[in-house]
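Sample pair:
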Amino acid sequence: MNALLRAALGGALLFAQAAQAAPAPVEDATPTLSRPPVRSSGPAVSDGVPYREPQLVMESDAPQAPSRSPDVLFEQLQALQAEVMMLRGLVETQAKALQRMETAARDRYIDLDRRVARLSGLAPATPAAPSAPVAEMATAQGAVAVAGDEREAYEAAFALTRDKRFAEAIPAFKAFIEAFPAGTYVPNAWYWLGELYLALANPDLESSRQAFVQVVNLWPEHPKVPDALYKLGVVYDQLGVSSDATRYFQRVLSEHPDSAAARLTQSYLDRRGA
């Protein structure tokens, strides 16, 4: 028993000495590199949605708009050019038509002003040789015989007016109206009758008024209407009926503000106001 105890104590002593003599272990300072977790073969799922790896799309793989053939583009260009040419032609046509209308209106009003000035004695009348129809239409006794067609008869009556032969022009225009009651120049004939009655040495205001009223009431769209309205204002003013004169003057200014009659009306009102 003692021998066994001594043997055990001796072994423990030897083990303790050996442990004191062994060097201390050296720690490794190299950091440990962790390997990425190995992804399973199936797709990862987050909140029920499978994970998909991003894919790099090359420019050549992107979808491109379909290109048009040169023939189609050329046809479209030709169609556009044809449309532009058509529209340009319409604009030029409308511009020429408008220019013709403006020229005709200007010439008409210039001629009207010249005739009114002649009838008023403000400008000398242009002498004209009497034509054959004039000799047939006016006689010394005042009997009138219309000769020629409508245009010739009207021009003959107007030639008397142009020559200031007012006493002869009045029956000539009356005969013209009786001979061609539905003629193209009848509104003009009534208008000049109104002017002629005013141009007499002793103006016949009532006959002048009736003549101008025919133009206004029977041919409301005729070019002579603005001038007839203006003359009605003048006649009523000379008759002393200022209310009717003002009414007709206002019609000229409101219904035909851009006409030559409107300018004459405003000038007349300015003189009357002074």
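The two ends are 167 Å apart (CA to CA).
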